[in-house]
């Protein structure tokens, strides 16, 4: 069986995620610490739109997803409501 047939379509983008290569520590920083490095990596990631959409659809509360911090995603959600 080819691997793509067992990956759910909405998480297939994670195969190409830059953060999968850099490690999660930038993306889930301690409260109050900088998210600048995570955002820099997201800025180079081709999966950014899919990542952000996934985070919004799945109500991911913690960490940087799709180049946006927790607070920024919260603001975006409020704008969309
Ligand atoms: S946009 Fe950022 S958090 Fe999302 S997959 Fe890419 S590097 Fe990871």
Can you tell me about this structure?
Helix content is 41%, strand content 0%. The mean pLDDT is 87. The chain is an all-alpha fold. The protein has a domain of 50 residues. It is globular and about 30 Å long. The structure holds iron/sulfur cluster. Iron/sulfur cluster binds next to helix 2 and helix 3.
Question: What's the topology here?
Answer:
Blueprint: H1 19-22, H2 36-43, H3 48-57, H4 70-80
Biggest beta sheet attributes? none
- Mean of residue pLDDT values: 87
Bound molecules: iron/sulfur cluster
Low-confidence runs? none
Beta-sheet strand percentage? under 5%
Q: What's the gyration radius in Å? A: 13 Å
**End-to-end distance, in Å?**
41 Å
Number of helices: 4
Order of helices and strands: HHHH
Number of DSSP strands? Answer: 0
Per the principal axes of the C-alpha atoms, what is the gross shape?
A: globular
Short structural description:
The chain is mainly alpha-helical and 81 residues long. It has 4 helices and no strands. It is 41% helix and 0% strand.
Task: Supply the key terms.
binds iron/sulfur cluster, 81 residues, 41% helix, mainly alpha
């Amino acid at each position: 069986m080819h691997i793509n047939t067992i990956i759910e379509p909405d998480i297939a983008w994670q195969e190409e995620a830059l953060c999968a290569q850099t490690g999660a520590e930038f993306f889930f920083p301690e409260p109050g610490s900088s998210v600048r490095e995570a955002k820099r990596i997201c800025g180079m990631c081709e999966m950014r739109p899919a990542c952000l959409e996934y985070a919004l659809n799945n109500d991911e509360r913690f960490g940087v997803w799709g180049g946006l911090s927790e607070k920024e995603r919260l603001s975006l959600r409020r704008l969309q409501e």
